[in-house]
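User: Hi! I'm working on a homework problem where we have to compare a predicted structure to a textbook description. Could you give me the structure for the chain below?
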Amino acid sequence: MGSILCLETSTEVCAVALSVHGIILEEREDKSGKNHALQLTRFVEEVMKSTGLTFSQLDAIAVSGGPGSYTGLRIGVSTAKGLCYAAGLPLIAIPSLESMAHHIISNTEKYSVENPGNLLYCPMIDARRMEVYAAIYNNNMLKIRDIQADIIDHLSFLDFLQNQKILFFGNGAQKCKTTIQHPNALFLDHISTSASYMATLAETALQTGNFVDVAYYEPFYLKDFVATIPTKNIYHSNNI
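Assistant: Happy to help. Predicted structure tokens:
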């Protein structure tokens, strides 16, 4: 039947969507960036109840595979694995940037994108300060530049911008507007990650059997997690 439960937790967005043959039946989403752990399980319960489907009727679980928030990715993947183990379902991992790029490229008319075939597409995920996780795709979803952690300055993406227009979007693109001011740099506002964006890619993965190992799969963090000490505790920790 092609029924897939999609989980998105790689950014401030916590979202769950249930798709059948790539078409969304039901979804829940919150963009506040608060308490993914509680929201995700609640959204899963609400979506399943609303559609009337049981986990035994699903064909797979899909999860955002990163890059993105270390904590968010761990919550999403651990929840997805638990559901897969409990229901005996295969696990699909969808790269977060690819999911965003696919959504925009598939909906250029909706977003009033001019001359879409002549653009490059650069989804960006905020990595704090002036750093973003980004990749570049062409209109056929071919990856022109692999995923990297970019520290943004006025020279960022200049090699590409000198030859072609680039459409930047995602929660990391907004802070780049005042820094990347090349005439070939275009920006699309209010685009973030979403479980609904994963549906078509997840359906393709299901049909081709492109699953990941439920036991050993780890999301693509891109950078190692670095724990920090809150400022109010610095002096206390130095005195231990």
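For your comparison, note the following. Confidence is low (pLDDT under 50) at residues 225-240. The first helix runs from residue 36 to 51. Good luck with the assignment!
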